[in-house]
């Protein structure tokens, strides 16, 4: 079997799909995208297709290594997101060839289902108490929210109080043992992150996400020392080597590699094993589409340290189209009591609505995140 062609598609709301076709008629799907840079990643996939055409799609490790090492320059969001989508598609082909879910080809599952959480609020969250209660009534046992609007390095305690009020509203609405994940989104710098971490402790959050950006990863231990709340990060790290440095500096309890940014199933499975060796939990980042979610579930199925899975159904970014619009086997993505069953179809586990993908790709999206500014006019982290 040989790879005959590689296609890329940009589809709403902000996703990029890659389709790899073979001369035996087996097609594999991946999700290759870096939010806000989808066209750049698609172009990178097309550049990499020179290495793919005519190759044996079953030799995933070899193809991955060629794409990563043979191009001289390596790593970073664009290159690794392109490799991620290609890798997912290759695993999809292999699973379909052997008529088995991908996790069965990686040693089989160590669990029967995976806990998931839902997003509440938006970029500047409001009314999160009522929204969290709705998710709880729908069966979810945990939610995640953006903690705060933009914060300068030293900012007003009024904004701190607003964060505490929002988190308190969720705790009041959903009870003491409902999971609350609080995403700082890299908007907070170390001085205010220490204040927030300390004050949020009384609400027993499930974890604090990206209290500072990973470019300041040496500060995680200092922030962790301010509170007894698990620290999570990793969506903006792209290789096992990035995570090696993170484990070396310490202070992080949960890693969140993104299956569409960090080299796909092949690389994230290795990162997950590294985390397990450091007694660090895994909660893959996934505010993306169905192929990315199914890829996450394949790794979750085989990773002992996987604790909870992000998913984007109902997330505020999804405008125009959402996850299940592109899925024909919607029943495989139903959530029950805050869990989703492991994929059952061969390959990644998604029967892609190719007709809709082709229709959407006629007018490719050009999604960009907003540019925020502080009151003094300086650029704020989004």
Task: Please describe what this structure looks like.
The chain is an alpha/beta fold and 382 residues long. The chain has two domains: 3-101, Enolase-like, N-terminal domain (Enolase-like, domain 1, 2-Layer Sandwich); 104-345, Alpha-Beta Barrel (TIM Barrel). It is 37% helix and 16% strand. It is built from twelve helices and 15 strands. The chain has helices at residues 38-52, 60-69, 77-98, 102-105, 128-137, 157-174, 190-200, 220-224, 240-249, 264-277, 290-302, 354-361; strands spanning 3-11, 15-22, 27-31, 113-119, 142-146, 179-183, 207-209, 231-233, 254-255, 281-282, 309-310, 335-336, 339-341, 372-373, 379-380. The strands form three sheets. Strands 4, 5, 6, 7, 8, 9, 10, 11, 12 and 13 form a ten-stranded mixed beta sheet that branches. Helix 5 links the parallel strand 4 and strand 5 (142-146). Helix 2 (60-69) runs antiparallel to helix 3, helix 6 packs parallel to helix 7 (190-200) and helix 9 (240-249) runs parallel beside helix 10 (264-277). The protein starts with a strand and ends with a strand. Its EC number is 4.2.1.6. Keywords: Lyase, Magnesium, Metal-binding. GO terms for molecular function: galactonate dehydratase activity; metal ion binding.
């Amino acid at each position: 079997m040989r790879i005959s062609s590689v296609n890329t598609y940009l589809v709403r709301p902000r996703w990029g799909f890659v389709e790899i076709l073979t001369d035996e008629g087996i097609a594999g799907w991946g999700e290759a995208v870096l939010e806000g840079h989808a066209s750049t990643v698609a172009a990178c996939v097309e550049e990499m297709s020179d290495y793919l055409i005519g190759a044996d799609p079953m030799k995933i490790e070899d193809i991955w290594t060629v794409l990563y090492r043979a191009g001289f320059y390596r790593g970073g969001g664009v290159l690794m997101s392109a490799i991620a989508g290609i890798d997912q598609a290759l695993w999809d082909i292999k699973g379909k060839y052997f008529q088995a879910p991908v996790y069965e080809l990686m040693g089989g599952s160590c669990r029967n289902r995976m806990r998931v959480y839902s997003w509440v609020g938006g970029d500047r969250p409001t009314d999160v108490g009522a929204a969290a209660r709705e998710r709880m009534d729908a069966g979810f046992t945990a939610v995640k929210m953006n903690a705060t609007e933009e914060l300068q390095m030293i900012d007003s305690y009024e904004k701190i109080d607003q964060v505490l009020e929002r988190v308190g509203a969720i705790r009041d609405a959903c009870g003491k043992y409902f999971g609350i994940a609080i995403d700082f989104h890299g908007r907070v710098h170390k001085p205010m992150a220490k204040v927030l971490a300390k004050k949020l402790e009384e609400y027993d959050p499930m974890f604090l996400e990206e209290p500072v950006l990973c470019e300041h990863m040496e500060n995680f231990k200092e922030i962790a020392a301010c509170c007894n709340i698990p620290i999570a990060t990793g969506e903006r790290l792209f290789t096992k080597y990035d995570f090696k440095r993170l484990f070396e500096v310490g202070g992080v309890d949960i890693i969140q590699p993104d299956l569409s940014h960090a080299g796909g199933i092949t690389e994230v499975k290795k990162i997950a094993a590294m985390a397990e060796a450091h007694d660090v939990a895994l909660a893959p980042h996934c505010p993306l589409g169905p192929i990315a979610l199914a890829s996450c579930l394949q790794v979750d199925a085989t990773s002992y340290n996987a604790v909870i899975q992000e998913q984007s159904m109902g997330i505020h970014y999804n405008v125009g189209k959402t996850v299940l619009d592109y899925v024909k086997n919607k029943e495989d993505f139903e959530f029950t009591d805050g869990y989703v069953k492991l994929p059952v179809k061969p390959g990644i586990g998604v029967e892609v609505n190719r007709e809709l993908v082709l229709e959407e790709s006629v007018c490719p999206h050009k999604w960009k995140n907003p540019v925020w500014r502080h009151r003094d006019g300086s650029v704020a982290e989004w």
